[in-house]
Amino acid sequence: MKYLLPVLLAIPLLSCDKADRKLPYYDSADFTPRWDISADTFHQIRPFALIDQKEGKFTEQDIEGKICVVDFFFTSCPGICPKLAVSMAGLQAEFLQDDQVLLLSHSVMPDRDTPAVLQKYATDKQVDFSKWKLLTGKRDEIYELGRKYYFVEEDEGLKRDNDVFLHTENFVLIDQNRRIRGIYNGLDPNSMQALTADIKVLKLE
To answer: Which annotated residues bind Cu cation (predicted)?
Structure first.
């Protein structure tokens, strides 16, 4: 349960002046916090090519200069995904008028979750397209992004190949340079409160 570490670090600081807080960086699946990222080779989400719910091409260029919250889901999920959608909807409401913040939900069943299916899901969940992108594409690319770049399953993800289903409650916070700044439990209200606070801290960098 390593995603608790940044949450536990963040919660006691919520009452501090945001200008005095700094978020660490993460470059490994064990989420050890790093503070010095002077090296050009520091971990960054790689370039990608996906498709959004309106059948538009969506790449790393679309998140350039944006703070992103990332999760992985599938539209027919009867378990945790509806709850994750509620958490994302809360972030959508909080940052709806903030052009710096973008929400990205990647389907882990891209063969079934076509843009048309994603659009219906978006309508059902009252997804605002300007704020919240539902993404599909090639399964191998989505799974590699989730496990090897977002570390969304933490250590376990690195041990699994793309034949093993990807399913997690984790949300990952990405800064304006596609670097990881936090991981949070999308089912936990306290963790979501910490994520909201951390987004506001990141906006001041």
So the answer is: 77, 81, 167
CATH of the domain at 188: 3.40.30.10
Give pLDDT tens digits for 52-96.
Answer: 999 999 999 999 999 999 999 999 998 899 999 999 999 999 999
pTM, entire model: 0.87
Cα–Cα nearest to 153, from 70, 67, 50: 70
Residues whose CB falls within 8 Å of the CB of residue 1, separated by 6 or more in sequence, listed in order = none
Binding residues: 77, 81, 167
Task: Give the residue ranges of the annotated binding site for Cu cation.
Answer: 77, 81, 167
Cβ-based neighbour number of residue 77 at 10 Å: 16
Q: Are 75 and 150 in contact (CB under 8 A)?
A: no
> How far is it between the farthest Cα atoms of the chain?
46
- 70 in a domain, yes or no? yes
Q: Give the pLDDT confidence of 32-45 residue by residue, as tens digits.
A: 999 988 777 899 99
